[in-house]
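Quick check before the chapter quiz. The format below is the same one you will see on the exam, so make sure you can read both the input and the output lines.
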Amino acid sequence: MKHSKKIITALVCIVALLAVTVAGTIAYLTDEDTVVNTFTVGKVDITLNEAPVDEDGKAITGDNVERVKANEYHLIPGMEYDKDPTITVKAGSENAYVRMMMTVYNASAVQAIIDNEAHGLEDYADLFSGWDETTWLYQGFIQDTDADTITFEFRYKEVINGYNEETDAAEDMNLEPLFTKLIAPGTLTSDELASLYGDETDTEDDFMIEIVGHAVQADSFADSTDAETGETITAEDAAWAAFDGQMKEGSVNE
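Here is the expected output.
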């Protein structure tokens, strides 16, 4: 009997050894993959300029002529002066709404000229030509009586970006000018011309036109409804409200 017990014990040991050996060959089923996220910085970038003019207010043209940020004009009744404020949306810019703000200084003197029926003028638009109201959409004006200015807002007809639609390549996009000419009515009197300019020592009262170009990203804004009035707030209105809010806070990119 003692011999049999030894045999059984030996068999148990062999089974245990086999179990250890089998367990040692097991491997977990595994795999590995990686996702790498790359972020690039979007931008909205514009320039605003116009053709340089000679002493007669005529545009200077040529292959090597650079456009300018300002021009000076010598007003004479009955003359038309070249002026073509143009915005370029720079290559690679994201979808953006674009607008121009035109401020007229010494507005009370200009308004008096417009109100004079002898000139046949209805409003400020009659002092300019080449404005396409279907391209640059008029939005209204803000009058500052203390500064004696009036500022008109014009929005470009559609969202624009710095990419060629056909090739999808980054490309500068030149928009149509806001207008092309400034007109001095031939019926202006010398007194009216003089009224456009203040004291020689104070140029702040002088007649001047300042045009500023703005652009704001179009993506991330959507139409919504005003909770109080029930009126629709368009995505573009929301975008410009955000832009104006940043201007007041002094955080608009230059």
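If your answer matched, good. The chain has one domain: 46-249.
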